[in-house]
Amino acid sequence: MSAVPITKVRTIVDKIEDGGAGIKVFSLVDPDHWELPPFKPGAHIDLHLPGGLVRTYSLCNDPADDKRYVVAVKREVEGRGGSIVLHDEVKVGDTIGVMLPRGGLDLSTEVTRFTFVGGGIGVTPFLSAAAWLKRMGRSKFTLHMIARGEPPLADLLAPLRKSGHVVIHDTSSGQRPDIAALVGRPLSDVALACCGPDSMIDDFEQASRDWPADRVHIERFVPPPLPVDPDAKPYVLALAKSKREIVVAAGQTMLSALTDIGIDVPASCCGGICGSCKVDWLEGQPVHRDRVLSPAERERSLLVCVAGSAKDRLVLDL
Amino acid sequence: MLDTLTAKPVPGAVVLSWTGVVRYLHITPRAFLPMREMPELTLIAGKGIEGDRYMIGREEGFYSHKPEEGRQVTLFEYETLVALKRDHNIDLAPEEHRRNVTVSGVPLTHLVGRQFWLGETLLESTRLSIPCRHIEEITGKAIFDPLINRSGLNCKILQGGTVRVGDAVRNVQ
After folding, report:
1. Structural domain contains residue B134
2. Which residues form the MOSC domain (chain B) (predicted)?
């Protein structure tokens, strides 16, 4: 008998392929090749890696391809260590626990045309979205792939290049393309999305500032640093289910305060963008500071990695 | 006070009864994985369903760390799926409620502590199932509150066998 609750989906590394440009493509499957929990186009999953690291990666495959999770990982020597573990330690046949897929692109039928801008490995969520759109017969989309030299992930890009959906922007011989020109002026039936390095996203945010917020989607590789709040004050965090109260010190994160008393909240990005540490709140007035919860979701939930409290006391459903 | 557990039938009184039918059968081998529709299930007395996550010896269900006999097989009313749509405009498919057997015409809430036939198998209900937030996490649908008191029935298997879609569900007379 399992002594502790099962909190993750158990997957096996079924295949590791070379994606070019220092990228490996991992296919994860159920041990019995059962269907995996469904995901939205462009969703991401947390991988629980050897050594306790938890890292979030976009899924590259079509959601209809429901027996695999495919993630493409670039080996980042200057990164936070997750990609090194995946590249250097993880082998075919290894077990990797994953959390349920989260997020994804809003590809509602109100929007008929899509412009995707992917920088290097940032193309991954759009590979999933593009495969889904093509299968649904919604072929009005363009994927701008910005990369130095021959773009990586050639096998995954090939069907999209063949159908004329990809525009390659090679930056090896010059500068990055004008993002504003790719984005264009707001149009009522078009939605935009971008994933790539911070500088590209900054340009994209600037270029899309006149677009309605609900038709602009941005995915970041790493969370932006939290701004230091000089007015931060301590507050009491009450846990309704476990009937405990703790003090969150000025400047301390709620996640850190919970971890200190042994409460294990699944967390990944620790920067308010991945959503894995979402917890329901019951009383008080949270200060949210995340980048993913909708106004409606904030009425009920918060992300403990970045949220604070505007009042002396906040009650969580923990 | 009415005590239906101990009251004896009165000679000549009206005998209330029912007969239902198996509409859908589902299993999954592990927590979080989608339920897969099956044409038939093999129930093992005292153990569970072949291939399901709560089968004794497998223990790969979300609640396997809290073992109880009533997880051997779980039932759900098709009528609840209809009610969710009618009363809450929620489309919940038979594979989404995560119970093993979806039945029509069976008053599950009346069967707690009682025995009944599911096809050729004999079950005894241990308790009403309780909705959990886990199912909201998996389905992404706000179904916790609407499923209170109609989230299905937990049963142990007294007599095993094969259960097929279309089988009758009958009271033990």
Report:
1. yes
2. 36-172
Asked if the interface predicted TM-score (ipTM) of this complex is over 0.90, the answer is no
Contact A34 B59 (CB under 8 A): no
> Chain A residues with CB inside 8 Å of B29's CB?
30, 32, 34
Rounded-to-integer distance, Cα A184 and Cα B130, Å? 52
Per the CB < 8 A criterion, the answer to whether A216 and A115 are in contact is no
* Domain count of the fold of chain B: 1
Q: Give residue B6's Cα distance to chain centre.
A: 24
Query: Residue A30 and residue B30: Cβ atoms within 8 Å?
Result: yes
CA A68 to chain B, closest CA, distance in angstroms equals 12
Residue B36 to residue A3, Cβ atoms within 8 A: no
Q: Domains in chain A, start-ordered, CATH in brackets? A: 9-98 (2.40.30.10), 113-220 (3.40.50.80), 235-316 (3.10.20.30)
The pLDDT-based confidence of B131 (bands split at 50, 70, 90) is confident
| Sequence-ordered list of residues with C-beta below 8 angstroms from that of B137, at least 6 positions apart, any chain | A100
CATH of the domain at B114: 2.40.33.20
Look up the domain containing B91 and give its range: 19-171
Rounded Cα distance, A114 and A187, in Å: 11
- Split at pLDDT 50, 70, 90, the class of B8 is low
Note whether A310 and A250 are within 8 A (CB): no
pTM of this prediction?
0.78
CB contact under 8 Å between B59 and A38, yes or no, is no
Of B29, B34, B62, the CB nearest to A5: B62
Please report which helix (H) or strand (E) contains residue B102, including its range: strand B101-104
A317 touches chain B (CB under 8 A): no
Scan residues 14-53 of A and list those with Cβ closer than 8 Å to B: 30, 32, 34-38
Q: What is the pLDDT of residue A228?
A: 64
B40-45 average pLDDT score: 98
Do the domain assignments include residue B4? no
Q: Is position B80 within any domain?
A: yes
Question: Tens digits of per-residue pLDDT, A59-101?
Answer: 999 999 999 999 999 998 877 788 999 999 999 999 999 999 9
Range with lowest mean pLDDT among A2-6, A232-236, B59-63, B129-133: A2-6
